[in-house]
Design a protein that fits this description.
The complex is a heterodimer of chains A (447) and B (286). With 447 residues, chain A is of the alpha/beta class. Chain A folds into two domains: 30-154 and 313-366, 3-Layer(aba) Sandwich (D-Maltodextrin-Binding Protein, domain 2); 155-307 and 372-434, 3-Layer(aba) Sandwich (D-Maltodextrin-Binding Protein, domain 2), CATH 3.40.190. Chain A contains 18 helices and eleven strands. In chain A, helix 17 runs antiparallel to helix 18. The N and C termini of chain A lie far apart (77 Å). With 286 residues, chain B is mainly α. Chain B has a single domain, classed as Orthogonal Bundle (MetI-like fold). In chain B, 74% of the residues lie in helices and 1% in strands. Chain B is built from twelve helices and two strands. Chain B has helices at 5-32, 49-55, 58-90, 97-109, 112-123, 129-136, 151-176, 180-188, 193-221, 225-230, 242-252, 256-285, and strands at 35-36, 44-45. A two-stranded antiparallel ribbon of chain B has the order 1-2. In chain B, helix 3 runs parallel beside helix 7, helix 4 (97-109) crosses helix 7 and helix 11 packs antiparallel against helix 12. The longest helix of chain B is centred in the N-terminal third of the chain and has 33 residues, at 58-90. In chain B, 31% of the residues are buried. Classes of the chains: A alpha/beta (447), B mainly alpha (286). The A-B interface holds A 1-4, 86, 89-90, 92-93, 111, 114-117, 202-205, 252-255, 258-260, 263-264, 267, 269, 396, 398-399, 402, 405-410, 413, 432 and B 1-2, 5, 8, 38-41, 56, 59, 117, 120-121, 124-128, 143, 145-149, 231, 234-238, 248, 251-254.
Chain lengths: 447, 286
């Protein structure tokens, strides 16, 4: 432009500075706890919430009862669908554009906590610590500060088709260990003339089963000091189960959550699905006509008498630090996640299994569910969840999981070589790619 | 300059927009290739650290190999197909020419998500149409999307289907720009159809071929949506191409510094290769 018009420049600068000041004022931290002088009926706010599919619908349904307590807080739930994670990250990075509340997967909570772009909820949330399973709460805390609140969790069990089990005379009660499970799978394969497979296991996506099994028997990807701990006796046991399943030929190679996978709900190709409580919602969504034909048995144990549950998935709610109305946002989170009635409602309507433990004593948990032929599946899922060992996630969880997926796929494609080599190579890869040390070996347990 | 400031004012919108949305990101990502940054926490200077990591990144080299392999699998059939269809569409006796032209171009404008649903159904191992037909004629079912060996061919087939029409339209335009007088003169001289093809059509089509090659080169290197919707780069890393790996590093792992380093390195090689192809063209014209 040149050197002239100083007055214009000054004016421009003044506008810039004042708008910055305005922005600053808008995002100045607002107290999180409700001002004791303001009653719930007088709390005001206009809250944007981001969540995905079922979860968003579930929150949306809770807005009317929430408004009976907080009539002046308006809540808008957005089903943002694809790319929520990337958009959330970008809005945190930019400092503007984030919602007041966002849903995150439990496994990625750690990544966001350490950015310090989320509101520290410790002062209002500490009192709920005992109300959530320890394995879950651990992933919500970073450096002794609470950054997210557990929402739904994914206690694991095995969904099975009653007609297939009855026709081929398989008794679900006889399946107590993974060895029993594999033996039953072989029987099923034999008695159906090779047509019915015990489970769907996409060889390109075996990380889900791996994660279930690893957490079930207390293994880790990262140790307490965030070092690589994948080359462990627990992981070796996980690999031996996966190997036996593949070698027995009892799995259908279906990529999870594709059309062919969903189609298997209604055909006779696959008899069981080891998965988490929320998977029931997926079945109801894609195959409502199969109601009554489903049953659930507890996750097979690693050895007789072992733990018969695990966790897969689950999500949390967070308040970005840039939220200008934190008290209203917290009020909504507290109502939806930390009250019995709201959590029960979400389980009833959308199969979101409550992480909030006080709900588990509700009679609703002992009611028969017609979708599962009248079985009391909710009580089954809630058993032993306080005994599920926690997984250390770190900020690199998803990247590590991707290397695990890739390595498992390659291991299968190359003809399932030795487990020791596989885990040593995976350990080396994780260590190099993530720039982390390898955890010192635990004394081996006589193997 | 100050005297003509009004004129500069009139042309300034382009430069301002280019500066903000073109130049600044380019320069900033160049700077980022020497840094570590996740978009949220403090940016730290890494010097040549990213390049050192890249030199030992086996997924990066796998992704380059996959990119090349997919390119080799799909470009030749696509080119041949496009050229043959262009010649057929260019013949005088063909009816419904407009219909065919539109039909061949349809795949280019069909949203990739829709295409992927159809192709995933075609490719299904247990219940896919292709395997149904294969078993009908007694062949073994092919694990299209679930095996490390077949994922690249599966993507290549989709690419041929999708991009043949696009190249065909370009080649058709090239064929139509060749003057009929050349062919008439050749006929009078007694040249047969193959001689006319070899001595007239192919040499005159050379600039079009080179243009299509450069577009395919760039398209192959930065290809993303076809792979993303069909296989997400799997099984394993067997179909992870450069574009998808770049996306994973930046928007899944949030390693913007490393991603910039990768992008600049590959862009450099694409630039060199493009220069090489253009040099071919110049030598051909002389």
């Amino acid at each position: 432009m040149g050197s002239g018009a100083p007055s214009h420049n000054t004016a421009l600068a003044a506008i810039c500075v004042s708008s910055l000041a305005l922005i600053g004022a808008t995002f100045a931290s607002e107290p999180l706890a409700l001002d004791p002088n303001v009653s719930a009926a007088d709390l005001t706010g206009d809250i944007q919430v981001w969540g995905w599919n079922i979860a968003a619908a579930s929150l949306d349904k809770l807005v009317p009862p929430f408004n009976e307590i907080y009539p002046k807080v308006r809540v808008h739930v957005n089903m943002t669908g694809a790319n929520l994670q990337s958009r959330f990250l970008l809005s945190l990075s930019a400092g503007v554009g984030a919602p007041d509340i966002s849903q995150l997967q439990l496994a990625e909570a750690a990544r966001y906590s350490r950015t310090r772009r989320l509101t520290d909820l410790t002062e209002v949330a500490r009192k709920y610590e005992k109300d959530f399973p320890a394995s879950f709460w651990k992933n919500c805390v970073f450096e002794d500060k609470v950054y997210s609140i557990p929402w739904d969790m994914g206690p694991c069990a095995v969904f099975y088709k009653r007609d297939l089990f009855a026709r081929h005379e398989i008794d679900p009660a006889s399946i107590e260990t993974w060895d029993n499970y594999i033996a039953a799978g072989k029987l099923l394969l034999e008695r159906s003339g090779g047509r019915v497979k015990m489970l769907a296991l996409g060889t390109g996506n075996m990380e889900g089963l791996f994660e279930i099994l690893l957490q079930q028997n207390g293994g880790q990807m990262f140790d307490d000091e965030d070092r690589i701990a994948i080359n462990s006796p627990q992981a070796r046991r996980v690999m031996s189960v996966i190997r036996k399943i593949l070698e027995a030929g009892i799995s259908a190679n279906l990529t999870p959550y594709t059309h062919a996978f969903y189609a298997s709900f209604t055909t006779e190709l696959v008899a069981t699905y080891p998965s988490a409580a929320w998977f029931g919602g997926t079945i109801k969504d894609y195959a409502p006509g199969t109601s009554g034909n489903w049953g659930v048995f507890r996750l097979p144990a690693m050895e007789p008498g072992g733990l018969r549950t695990s966790n897969l998935g689950g999500s949390v709610l967070v308040i970005p630090d840039q939220c200008p109305q934190k008290a209203a946002a917290w009020a909504f989170i507290e109502y939806t996640l930390c009250t019995r009635e709201a959590q029960i409602e979400q389980y009833r309507n959308f199969d979101l299994f409550p992480a909030f433990l006080p709900t588990h004593s509700d009679p609703f948990f002992d009611a028969p569910d017609p979708f599962y032929g009248g079985q009391k599946v909710r009580r089954l899922f809630s058993q032993d969840i306080e005994r599920i060992p926690p997984l250390n996630r770190t900020k690199d969880w998803f990247e590590a999981l991707r290397y695990l997926t890739q390595s498992l796929s390659k291991w299968y494609a190359d003809g399932m070589g030795s487990t020791e080599d596989f885990l040593a190579q995976l350990e080396d890869k994780l260590s190099r790619r993530l720039g982390r040390d390898v955890a010192p070996r635990e004394p081996s347990e006589g193997s | 300059m100050w005297r003509h400031r009004h004129f500069y004012l009139f042309i300034s919108p382009f430069f301002v927009l280019f500066g903000v949305f073109g130049l600044y990101p380019l320069l900033f990502s160049f700077y980022l290739s020497f840094a570590r940054w996740d978009g949220l926490t403090e940016l730290t200077w890494a010097g040549l650290g990213n390049f050192a990591t890249l030199a030992h990144d086996e997924v990066f080299f796998t992704s380059l190999w996959n990119t090349l392999a997919i390119g080799i699998l799909y470009v030749p059939p696509m080119f041949i197909g496009a050229f043959v269809f262009a010649i057929i569409l260019n013949t005088a006796w063909l009816k419904f020419r407009g219909f065919f032209r539109a039909a061949f171009f349809m795949p280019v404008v069909t949203p990739m998500v829709v295409v992927s649903i159809v192709f995933i159904l075609l490719y299904g191992e247990e219940a896919g149409l292709l395997n149904y037909l294969a078993t009908r004629i007694g062949a073994k079912p092919i694990p299209w999307l679930v095996s490390e060996q077949w994922s690249k061919p599966a993507i290549a087939v989709l690419l041929v289907w999708r991009w043949t029409g696009y190249n065909m339209v370009l080649m058709l335009a090239g064929l139509q720009s060749i003057s009929h007088e050349y062919y008439e003169a050749a006929k009078i001289e007694g040249a047969g159809p193959f001689q006319r093809m070899w001595h007239i059509t192919l040499p005159l089509m050379r600039p079009i071929f080179i243009f299509c090659s450069i577009m395919s080169l760039i398209g192959t290197v930065y290809m993303f949506d076809e792979v993303f919707v069909l296989t997400q780069g799997g099984p394993g890393t067997s179909s992870t191409n450069f574009g998808l790996y770049l996306f994973n590093v930046s928007f899944v792992d949030f390693k913007f510094g490393y991603a910039s380093c990768m992008a600049y390195t590959v862009a450099f090689f694409v630039f060199i290769t493009s220069l090489f192809i253009l040099r071919l063209r110049r030598s051909g014209l002389n």
